[in-house]
Amino acid sequence: MFCFQCQQTAGGSACINTGVCGKQPSTSNLQDELVCELIKLAELSKNENKHSAVADRLIIDGLFTTLTNVNFDDNAIKEFMGRVKNEQNKISRSEAEKIQVIDLWDGDTDIVSLRSTLLFGLKGMAAYAHHAMNLGYTDNEVLKWFYKGLCEVNREHSVTEWIELIMEFGQVNFKCMELLDKANTESFGNPVPTRVNVDIKKGPFIVVSGHDLNDLSQLLEQTEKTGVNVYTHCEMLPAHGYPELNKYHNLAGNFGTAWQSQQTEFENIPAPVLFTTNCLMPPRPSYKDRIYTTSVVGYDGMVHISCTRAGKKDFTPIIKHAQKLGGYEHDRSMSGINGGHMLTTGFGHSAVLSQAGKIIDAINAGHVKHIFLVGGCDGAHPGRNYYTEFVKQTPMDTLVLTLACGKYRFNDLDLGEIDGIPRILDMGQCNDSYSAIKVALALADAFHCSINDLPLTLVLSWYEQKAVCILLTLLSLGVRNMYIGPTLPAFMSETVVKYLVENYKLNPITAPEQDMDAILKR
To answer: Which Pfam families does the record cross-reference, listed alphabetically (predicted)?
Structure first.
């Protein structure tokens, strides 16, 4: 195997024996083979000018299947690959056999680096397109770019041409994030600031992890009158801010913290867990029988809940399992990483921009002197306590916007308010970077300047490919002076990193105090 797509890859270089995530060589090789078959499907569709809704779905879900911590089930990947080959044959079996696919990891170091950057970006965008498609939303430009991107991965390009492609991709991913925002808000309403309890009530319950709001909505509807409570986990936390989800009284709170702690947090809970998307870790034997998967998520031996062609799912098995286990006999006190018992979420672009006047007045009055966007993926890397310490050191006259699961490092801290504005504003899931960008653009417009002229600094943590595509979008929008960590991507060569540092002032994080001094020019 050869895999260097996540931040925790072995030795900061590549996993070649077994994945740090738990992925076995057979699985890694099958995922690479699946990517190659998806490239063939894209090439064939383009050459024969035959694009179908089936091929669209296969490409998006197939790429998502190969994203970090999504699918560890070899048989499921083989079955999916069979469906891809069947679609190829429907277009033209003879032409499919003629298509040659490049060796993804072979060649000049810089070219492999740039090819990988585009491919991993496509994997990340596939996750967002998948969620939007589950709600019935698609965009032709985004769909066409999946075909284009996969075909370009299979081409030889100069360094300049690769950079141009990657920047073009960043713009398309921005459109994809906008599409998902539209899908979520039109389906479930604009998020509103909401307080979420992390304590667990007595009685049966289900924990829902991942990102798919449509899955959560169906589960809430099916559990509404069963006596089973539902708790969000990790990136599902922002669901509490959506009115059409929060209306369910059995959406009872949030369980646990970020994804990397699941092996200890799920150890002894008397409840089943549903994984709707990525962030699944190999489960321990003590709780493996309580894990359910759905959609593109897979692990050998687990119960998988499929959907009908209409996108409906029957969650009866997990509901009955929750009732059988019974939950806790008494209310259970829980806490976040820093000991807090309440979290606040729901500060999407609609909520924040409704307070734009107050924020602008606070900036003009000198009450808010700087805004930090501290967000991204969490992980088990020791250096990730940087983000907790960084937020703790933010001055009292600054705001902290946050999103994705990186916020669990500090979202239970009480940093107070500025003129009635909470100092920590949780904007949602990783895909809600669109909200952060929209707010930044609105502030830049209000102050008649560019984003780079605002008193705004982005401090990002990355783990997997969705963070990669967000970074590429920010770069394509010309955002500079970002800080990224806890390490730079292993798939980015020294030459590529040098280019980003020189042209976009991309800064690797150092120490919280040192970076804070540099940002605030102290």
So the answer is: Prismane (PF03063)
